[in-house]
Amino acid sequence: MERQTAIVQELPHSLHHQFDIHRFLRRETGGRLLNRNDQRMILTTEDFVVGFQQALEEEVGEAAAEIMYRCGFEWGKADINGFEKRFRTEFGKNPDEMIGGFVMEMWWWPLQAAGWGSWEYDLSHQSDGLIFVDLYESAIAKSVGNIGKVACHYYAGMFAAVFSHLVKRDLSGIEIQCYSMGEDFCKFLIGASKRIQATQFWVREGATANEIISRL
User: Fold this and answer.
1) Which residues are CB-neighbours of 13 under 8 A, at least 6 positions away?
2) Which of 84, 117, 157, 180 is the most exposed place for a label (fewest CB within 10 A)?
3) What is residue 16's three-state secondary structure?
């Protein structure tokens, strides 16, 4: 999502890590908006994001968070599968044959170019079964503002799906710190389902990210 509307008509063939919406999107006849991977895109306002979030919560209550998480999970599965196909076409190799950091940035940069924010991931605790992701400029949290609770359930599901695919085992995800809680950035934990369930209780009890990490 992005508020800017000036989109170039010509698209370079080799952009790689170019986080620039003007080189990432193109308009076609009839107003169709496509990215460099020929995926259909839409531009939305913050009001749309807020309205969608509020309408879902009003309709299903507390179940809204789980619905958004599952939507994010399915989004992540589809996105990482599509990425791997594009990666093999462009580089002639499978992603697991390349340097991991390069692969992860290649996967994320189209999402950053589309307005989903920038990220940092931490694999230093992977031996303990934990992966952390810091997200800056979350499209969801920046839209809904300070609501006193975590808001980025779509991202949590997406990160869970992508890292599950990469490590080849089932993982779950949860947001443990959010811009919508007055924090500077959002933080996510990805790990085994049992550990995420325990973390859900701590989040509901109001534990901070540092408190949760120390307990883990």
Assistant:
1) none
2) 84
3) coil
Question: Are residues 156 and 200 in contact, defined by beta-carbon separation less than 8 angstroms?
Answer: no
Q: Give dist(CA 43, CA 7) in Å, integer.
A: 11
What letter does residue 173 receive in the DSSP assignment? E
Backbone phi, psi, residue 118, to 5°: -105, 165
Residues of the chain with pLDDT under 50: 1-13
- The greatest distance separating any two alpha carbons of the chain, rounded to the nearest whole angstrom, comes to 55
Instruction: Classify 123 as helix, strand or coil.
Output: coil
Say how many residues make up the chain: 216
The pLDDT tens digits of the residues spanning 173-194 come to 999 999 999 999 999 999 999 9
Q: What residues does 130 pair with on adjacent strands? A: 191
Q: Tell me the three state secondary structure of residue 175.
A: strand
